[in-house]
Predict the structure.
Amino acid sequence: MIYLDNSATTKPFPEVIDSFVTVATKYFGNPSSLHELGMKSERLLTQAREQIAAALKVKPSEIVFTSGGTEANNFAIKGVAFQYRHRGKHIITTAIEHPSVSEPCQQLEQLGFEVTYLPVNEHGMVTAEQVKKALREDTILVSVMHVNNEVGAIQPVEEIGALLAHYPKTIFHVDRVQGISKVPLDMKKARIDLCTMSAHKFHGLRGAGILYVRQGIRLSPLLAGGGQEMQLRSGTENVPAIVAMAKALRIALEKYDKQIDYLHEVKQAWLNELKAIPEIQINTPVEHSAPHIINFSLKHGMKPEVFVHELAKSDIFVSTTSACSSKKKAPSKTLLAMGVGEERAESGIRISLSFENTLEEIPIAVAAMKKAIEKLSEVTR
Amino acid sequence: MDRIYLDHAATSPVHPDVVERMIPFMTEVFGNPSSIHYFGRQSRHAVDEARALVAKSIGAKETEVIFTSGGTEADNMALIGTAMANRDRGRHIITTAIEHHAVLRACQYLEKQGFDVTYLPVDEHGKVSPADVKAALRDDTILVSIMFANNEVGVLQPIREIGELLKEHQAYFHTDAVQAYGLVPMDVNEHHIDLLSVSGHKINGPKGIGALYARETVKLSPLFYGGEQERKRRAGTENVAGIAGLAKAVEIAQETMKQKQEEYRLLRETMLSIFAESGIDFAVNGSEDGLPHIVNVAFPGTNVESMLVNLDLAGIAASSGSACTAGSIDPSHVLVAMFGKESERIRSSIRFSFGLGNTKEQIERAATETVKIVKRLTNK
Ligand SMILES: Cc1ncc(COP(=O)(O)O)c(C=O)c1O
Ligand SMILES: Cc1ncc(COP(=O)(O)O)c(C=O)c1O
C-alpha cells in the first residue's frame, strides 16, 4: 500500500494509539471530578496542555482543546465576530481558505458582517500589501491560512503578522492545520492571536484539535455548558485523544527535525517524475510551497475520480483536491482562484506526503499512474 | 487499596469491546470518509452502520441522526440551532430549572440574543409538571427542552405526557437524554420527541463523541460550518473510530438494558438498606422510580466537602452531583430547585452512581464506609 492522501488524514502513530488505549481504559475519570480518578485525568490533561504549549512555545493557558480543526476555525471566526461586533463588522480573509473558515464567514455575512476575500496570484499566494490595502477602521479580524490544503502554497503569515502589529484592534487568525510539523512557524514572532491545529493531520486521532488563543484575546464561546477549557469550550474533555495528540505532536516534530530534508527530497523526486509525464500539468507552485503537497491536473479531459479509483486498484491512494470537496464534482476553489481555468481546475489531483513516505515508493506509484493515464486516454479517445 | 468507582454519571469506563472495536479504525481503516478511495469508503460504511444502529435504538430514521463531539455539543446544537433557524416563528423557549448546564448556558446565551426563556420549577422530587408546561406555552414558543432524566438525582421526567401535549403545538420538543439513554427504553415517535441528545462517555463509550437526533421536519442551523459532512448539518472530518465505538456501546447498552436495570436496583437497595440499618440520619433525594443507577442521598449534619474528601480517602469515588461544574463545589442548582436555597440538604448531599464493574460486595463496602464516615462527622 502506498498512502499519498496525508492531507485528508494521516495514519495515527502506533505510540499514539497505545497512549489512547491506556488513558481510555485506566484513567477514564472526568477531569472535573474531585476524587482521585478525576484528579488523575485532570493531571493528564494539564500535562498534555503543558507539553503542547512547550512544543509550540506558548503558554499552557493559551491552549484550548476542541473537537478538531473545523470546530477551532468556527470558534475563532465566530468567537471574534460575536465578541468584538461592537468594535466593527469587517473581516478580511482569502479566496482559498478551507471551508471551515470560508463558510463561517459566509454565515457572518448573512448576520450583517462584511467580508473581504483577498484574491491570490498564480502561485496561490496573497501578500501583506493586499491585506494592508483591505484593512479598514472597522476590521476586527484577519484570517489567513498558513499552508493551503489543496496546492500547498505557503502564505506570508509572518509578514502579515508584522503588518498587523500596527493594528492592535485587528485580531489575526491563522489556520495551521496543514502546516504544523511540516512548515515551521513561530506563532509569537508572527504575532498570531489565534491559531488552529487538528490532531488527525499530524498522526494523532480524530476528535481532538487545538485553538491557540493568545493571552488577552477574548472569544465568545461556541459551546456553552460546564465551563471547561477556562470557560471557553464546554463539554467533558476528551482526555484520551488529547493525551494522544500531545504525543503525536512530539513525535511529529521530532520527525521534522530528523527527516525534513528527506521529505524535501521525496517531494522533489516526485516533481521530477511528474513533470516528465506529458499528460500532467503541475499546479503546485515551485517556490513557497509545503514539502508534502503536490497538486497536478490531468490533461485531455481525463476524469480525476476515475484516475483515483484506477490507482486504488493498485493500492495507491491519492485524492481529487481536498477530501472535503472530493465528493462533488466542483472545480477546485484554490485552482480557480489561481486562475488556471475551469478545465484544469476540474481535473486536479493531490498527492500529499508524510514522513512515512519514501523514495522507493515513487517508481512503483509513477508506473501505476502512467498505466492509469494510458487506460484513461483510451477511454477518452 | 481497592478503589470503588461510584461516579458513573460523571463519566464511565470504556467497555473493553468498545476499545477493541475502535482500534481497527485507527490502524487499518484510518481513511477520511469523504475520500473517494477504498479507505474512505470503508470508513463511510462504518459510519453508516453506526448511524443505523443509533437510529434504531430510539426508533428514528438514519438520516435523522447527527454525530457530534458529545452531549454538550448536541445540547447546544439543539437549542441554538433550532432557535436561530426558527426565530421568524417566535422567540420563546421553555425549559426547566434543573437542566444540565449545557442546556442552561445555551439558554442564557439565547436570552442575550433576544430570546425569552421560561425556566419551569420542579417539585420536591425533582419532577416537572406537564400542567406547568401547558400553562407556559405561548403562540410564539418555538422550543421546549426538558431532560429525559436528571443527572444529579436521577428523576425521570414525564416525557410522554409532555410530548403528547406538544403534539398540537408548533414548538419542537427537545430532550437531553444523556443520562437516561441506554438505561431506559425510549422511542422518539411514541414520545413525540423532535430532538434528543446522547453522549458516548456516559454509556461506556468513548469520550468526544455524541449524537443529536433531529426529526427530519426540524429546521436546524449548524453550529459548525465548512464541509459536507453529516448532510451539511455538522462539518468536520468524521471521528470514525469514535463513531464506531459509540455504536458498539449502544449495541451493548441495548442488549444489557434489562439486566442492568435489575442489577442497579439491587445495588441501590443494598446501599439504602445498609444506611437504614446503621441508624444514621439520611434522606434520599429524588423519586423512587428514577434512574436505577443514581442514588443521591442527604446526610444531615455533614457537609459535602468533608464527605467527599473522606470518601476519597476510603477509596470511594462519589460526587456532589454534577461533575461538569468544573472543579468547585457550588451548591447544586438541581437541589436548590427541589428544596430551596436555605435547605440544609443542598450542603449535605452526595451522589453515588453505579455502572460497569460494580459488584454487590463493593456497594456493601462503600455503604459501610459511608456509614462510618457519617457517624464520625456527626459525632454519633
Ligand atoms: C486547512 C484545513 N483547515 C481545517 C481543516 C478541518 O480540520 P478537521 O478535519 O479536523 O475538522 C482541514 C482538514 O480537513 C484543513 O485541511
Ligand atoms: C444530562 C447531561 N447532559 C449533558 C451532559 C454533557 O455531555 P458531555 O459531557 O458529553 O459534553 C451531561 C454530562 O456531563 C449530562 O449529564
User: Anything to note?
Assistant: Chain A has a mean pLDDT of 95. Residues 239-275 of chain A form the longest helix (37 residues). Residues A 68-70, 73, 98, 100, 145, 149, 175, 177-178, 198, 200, 209, 324; B 236-237 surround pyridoxal-5'-phosphate (ligand 1) (CB under 6 Å).
